[in-house]
Structure formats: C-alpha cells, structure tokens
TrEMBL record:
Family: Belongs to the LysR transcriptional regulatory family.
SUPFAM superfamilies, sorted: Periplasmic binding protein-like II, Winged helix' DNA-binding domain
PANTHER family attached to this UniProt entry: HTH-TYPE TRANSCRIPTIONAL REGULATOR, TRANSCRIPTIONAL REGULATOR-RELATED
Protein species of origin: Collimonas pratensis
Domain HTH lysR-type: 4-61
Name of this chain's protein: Bacterial regulatory helix-turn-helix, lysR family protein
UniProtKB keywords: DNA-binding, Transcription, Transcription regulation
Signal peptide interval: none
Entries under Gene3D superfamilies matching the protein: 3.40.190.290, Winged helix-like DNA-binding domain superfamily/Winged helix DNA-binding domain (1.10.10.10)
Pfam families: HTH_1 (PF00126), LysR_substrate (PF03466)
Amino acid sequence: MKGVTIHQLRCFDAVVEEGGFQAAAEKLHRTHPTISAAVKVLEEQLGICLLDRSGYRVTLTEAGQAFHHRAQLLLREVEGLGGFAANLAAGEESELRVVIGDLCPLPEIVGLLRKFFDGRKTHLHLHFEAISGPWERLFDDGADLIFHHIDQSDARIDFIELSAVRLVPVVAPGFLDFPKSGEVTQRQMRDRVQCIIRDTARHSPQQNYFLIDGSPRCTVDDQFMKKEIILQGMAWGHMPLFMVAQELQDGRLLSIAGKHFPGNSVRLAAARLRNGSHGPVASRLWDYIAEQANSLALEHAP
C-alpha cells in the first residue's frame, strides 16, 4: 500500500458506485482523465487489476470486489475522523440528533435527556420513529443516537443495554364474545380487529409483528393511540407491559397471554454507529447513558 492515497481510493470508489469514469468525475467534480489516471496508478501500485473495462460499463474484478470492500471501510473511517476533528475544533457540537423508538418509556428517556442537556448550548433534535424507522435513521446517518431495540450482533453499531420490555396481548373487558375460560386461540381472534403500529421507515422493508393473517386491522402511529383504541374496545393488540400494568391490575384491560399468544420480551438499548463521528457532547452523553443505564428497569408485574 506504499504511496496509495485517499484521493485514489475515493476515485476508485466513485467509479464503482457510479458505474463509470465520467459519472465518477461528475460526482467528485474532477475531469475524466484525472479519475482515470488516479485509478490506473492505484492498480499499478497495488499490482492487481481492480476493474474490468472490456464491457459497456466498468465492473469489478474478483480482486477488485475484495479490495473495494476494504477500501470503503477505510474511507468511512477517514470521513469519521474528519468529522470528529471538526467537532473538536468547534469545542462542542452545535446540534445532536436523537431518535426515540416506539417501545421506549418516554418519561424515563426524556427525563434522562433533560438532565443531561440542562444548561448546554447544543441543539437537541428529538425525533420519534416506530418499528424499523429508528434503525433506518441511524444507518442513513440521520441520527447520532437512537433508543430502540436492536440486533446486538450487528457489527456496525455500539450499544448500551437499558431495560427489558415485555409485550403482552391485551383486550378490553367485553371485547371477546366468548367466555375466556381457557387458552385463547388465534382462530378465535382471526375475525376481531387487531391494532398495530405503523412502521415509519421510508425505504426499508416494512416490518410487522404478531399479525394474524387475514384479520381486520386498525393502524395507528404510536403506542398511546394504540392503548386508547384497545381501552375503548375497538381492537385488541400487544402492548408494552409498563404502559398497561395499572389497567391490568384494576381490570380495565385483560391479558390473553398463553400458549397461542405468548407475547415477547425485547431489550431496549441506546445505539450509535461504531464508525460514526462522535464529538465531545455526543461522547459525554454516551458516557452519561452508560452511568444511568441501571436506573431504567421497567419490568412490571401484571
């Protein structure tokens, strides 16, 4: 890799992503000969052919595919380092973008943020997203931090575990027109309206959970609306236990959990991109969340 420059790697990456030298030149605001020369010198320095130029569109060789993957990782690291340096030069970030997912306990999470941001000049952009919306924002570089359940095996993210959230299937008294004397089955619930949360992802595949195929549905934007719909006897659905514990205790809601509707438990976390640009305020917020994580225990007995 002696002599290889970031400029060469950016030119090579642009050719691959744009599908040609001219398109890469336009993207990088360079001339076609400049891009072509940079990639040619890169290949000579490496001693390998990265691009197949025999077709109408240039394509990666087998060696080029492997090298391009590693080059992209390095370029992301460089971009993150540049952003971090800019944040350091500024002293503190002018703004932070935080996304709260639909299963989060708002009083606890917002209270955590309030205590941290009290007296700070950093502008907090706070967003609410549901289902796969928080993940999409994070991976699209539309968020510096999210509070949501995550895939903990995803190597792209760092995370801090916060709390367990139990999801339980609930109905209002009188919603069922049959005696709840035993296990409620999916067949018994198939003709009854099921309330679900709308996935706020814009281009990612839409995700739905606990759906009974063929059942009528009522779709809402958040858990508060969903809870009210269920309390009013308009539909049934799965709710975070911490949101309905009091209603289950005083009889305003009934659990139909059992063999056919076991519910689920998810782990909420604070998450950020591992290779992202984390300035001084974002880093202090991350450390503060880690210190306070144990205080967000949310499991309630029904």
